[in-house]
Amino acid sequence: MRADARRNHERLLRVARAAFAEQGTDAALEDIARRAGVGIGTLYRHFPNRHALMNAVFQDAVTALLARSRELAEADEPCAALVEWLRAVVTHAGEYRGLARALMSASYDPTSALSQCNDPLREAGARLLTRAQEAGVVRHDVSIGDLLQLTNAIALAAEQDPRDDALADRLLTLTLRGVKP
């Protein structure tokens, strides 16, 4: 990338991150481009659609979730490790209004740019889930797809009542009681 293109790319990411935090993931792309000091065509040259921009914005969080899954992979209590990781996923999905909904829809669309976030998370979670299932502490009919959809649904539900900081954790705890044999 040329130096000016790299600067535009970095500025677009910085502005998009702030816009998504302030307004949710439905923030107007035109406003993001304008605030970054570029035209909408420049935004689309770097990020062909909203999901591509979201994928780029959320790569740091995905990297952190993947690193945490590797740390938890050898934990003495596989079920506790899985629950801790799922809590981190719920926290991430709840950081930006609209992200949980976008992740839920992307899980059904392998062509979505958000699949680049979803697929590695699915693999990381599957390893933790399999370990917990092999230890006999999680039912064998539970899938990582189900758990990720539940975590996104919990984040979406918690998004509806932002005054209740503990809602997502309570819902996750209640939900996970059903995965034990």
From TrEMBL:
Record GO terms (molecular function): DNA-binding transcription factor activity; transcription cis-regulatory region binding
DNA-binding region: 28-47
Protein name per the record: TetR family transcriptional regulator
Keyword Amino-acid biosynthesis (UniProt): no
Keyword Transcription regulation recorded: yes
Keywords: DNA-binding, Transcription, Transcription regulation
Ranges where the HTH tetR-type domain occurs: 6-65
Matching InterPro entries: Homeodomain-like_sf, HTH-type_TetR-like_transc_reg, HTH_TetR, Tet_transcr_reg_TetR-rel_C_sf, TetR_SbtR-like_C
Superkingdom of this protein's organism: Bacteria
UniProt xrefs under Pfam families: TetR_C_43, TetR_N
